[in-house]
Every structure is written in structure tokens, then in C-alpha cells.
Amino acid sequence: MTTLRTSAQFSEHGLVPPEQQPVLDGVAARYALALPEALAALIDRADPHDPIARQFVPDQTELVHRPEELNDPIGDNAHSPVEGIVHRYPDRVLLKLTAICAVYCRFCFRREMIGPDKANALSSKALARALDYIRSHPEIWEVILTGGDPLVLSARRLRSVMNALAKIDHVKVVRIHTRVPVADPARITPELVRAMQIKGKPTYVAVHVNHPRELSGRARAACARMADSGIPLLAQTVLLANVNDTPEVMAELMRALVECRIKPYYLHHGDLAPGTSHLRTKIAAGQQLMRDLRGRSSGLCQPTYVLDIPGGHGKSPIGPNYIEHSSSNAHFKVEDFNGQRHQYPPPLSNVESPEDRGRPPLPRA
Ligand code: SF4
Q: pTM for the full model?
């Protein structure tokens, strides 16, 4: 088995019942399918709620489109001055090199724009125009390679893009967003790792991981190859119903990431992508999950819970609030990790004087 790409192949490998195949052909006609062997091997076929299957095996509910869902849920198109570039925030741009991914996530926020039947790799002319755009905007400090998945490109092609970015003085940081280390870890070869790096500028890699079981031995080894070569690793995770929306699973995932030298960066609230309502949670549930995570896990294990505001207005942190003004506005109330509230600054009667601590008082002026 290599990569499953049709509903018939999903059925042959015991991932969907044969009687569902006709309706799943309809799903496949609308949204790309691909499940590489490394991920398919992690699925427990005896578990009808397997969290890996839920993310990657097509489901007939994907054909249920809700009125609030949007073809371009995070508003990329509103901020695309030239093909391949999304310039939403002043100091950084997305550079979308390809519409291909190693695996097609059933909740993908760009599902209407990616897949083998969509405009594929940027043509060399379009790439030249995108690089010209970056060159002519000195405020661009960071370039984020995304897609599609930039790590499906050959090492040669990735190196040529990285070398072009290296020559743009005002670009100081390159970030690569990818699912390849978990979807197809064998692709993270020493040659590809070298191609990700450029002299004098850091490359950060943000690995997309949603469940601790995705961090298989092979995925961990792929991440280690990048970390060992000096690439700082971040994680981005999508909050998904019945995949990672319990405190136990989320804490296990965050700890596993940190153990792999991957710093949890963003926990994304599920975007309003078409046909994904069965995988979205309520924001209140995400906030409670973040409270639980803070109460039980190290600070290293805390991502920022964010929402991409529909319409292209960017990300906002939407995690729980731990601080508020008192009713008199004279001080704050701050909540600790046990849910207890405290006044800040503390009431004077609660503050120990130096004499209370047995130390001599400071001389008064
Ligand atoms: S890897 Fe990213 S871009 Fe590709 S299908 Fe998954 S979420 Fe979408």
C-alpha cells in the first residue's frame, strides 16, 4: 500500500463499508482524498470512533453544507495582491507554492483550493511575480511557506525558493507549515532538511499535529532530524470534536509535542470550511479545555487558542480570560489555575510588612 486516493481503495483497505462507496464517490468528487500508508497504519479498524480515521477518512456528512460555512473561510482571497501571495498582516506574507498535500484532512480550511485538480505548483512566471512582490515590500520581515504543503516539493525546488528568499535582505525569517512529518515521515530526508535551511536566516517549521497517536516512532524520528539540524519546531493543532477535545487527550498531545522538542504554538478553533460542522466544537468548549490544560500541564505545553476571523480579518486569541477589573475599578481580580480568584494588588491587610517577616524595616526617607 502507498497512498489511498479513491473511495474504492479506502473500502478495499477496510476503512469504509463497501455500501458507502457510492456516496463517498460524491465526497471525493468535491474534496480531494489522500491517505498515505504511514497514517493509514495508525488507524484501529475495530474502533468506529478512531481519532485518526475521523481526521482523514471521508465521511458522507462532508456533503452537508451549513449556511454559515464559507468557501474561503479565513478570507485569503481578499488579501492576495498577486498569485501565490497572501498579505494580511504588515510584517509577513504567506507564499503558497503548491495546491498538493501529502494527506487531505477532512476539516481543511482551504479544502476548496487544494487538491490535484486545483491549480498546481506556482508556474515559474507566477513564482517570479510573487518573489518580486516580496522584494518590493521592505516591511515583509517573515515569509511563511504554506499551501498545500510545501514539503511535498522536491528538495531541488524547495532549495531554489529558499535561495531566492535568502537574497532578499529585509526577509529575516522563513517559516514552513507542514503535515508531512506525520503524514509521510520518510519524505523528511537529510537532503530535504538541508534544503529547508538558508545561511544567516532561521527557518522555523510549524508541524500540524492533532492527536498524540500521530506522533508515531517514524514521525518522531522525522521531527528529530529537523531539530537535530538546528531547526526550531513549533506545533499547530486544530481543535476537533471527538478527536482531541478532551483535557486528557489535549494534555497528552501537548506533552508529547514538547518531548519531541516541538513547542505548541497555536490551537486553532475549527474554521467554517464547507462540510466540516461535524468536526467543529463550540468556542466555550475550547475555552474550558484551555482552562483544564493550564491547570494540569507545564507552561511549555500551553498553545494560544485562536480564531481566524471570517472575512480575512486575521487571527485573534480567544482563550479564557483570567483577569478583570473589580467593580470599583480600583484593582483587578485574577483567577489562579485552581479557579480561585485573588485581588491584585492584594488588600493592604494581607500584605506582610518587613517587621512581620522578622527583617529590619527600611529607613524611611
Ligand atoms: S495538510 Fe493542511 S492544507 Fe493540506 S489538507 Fe491538511 S489542513 Fe489542508
A: 0.93
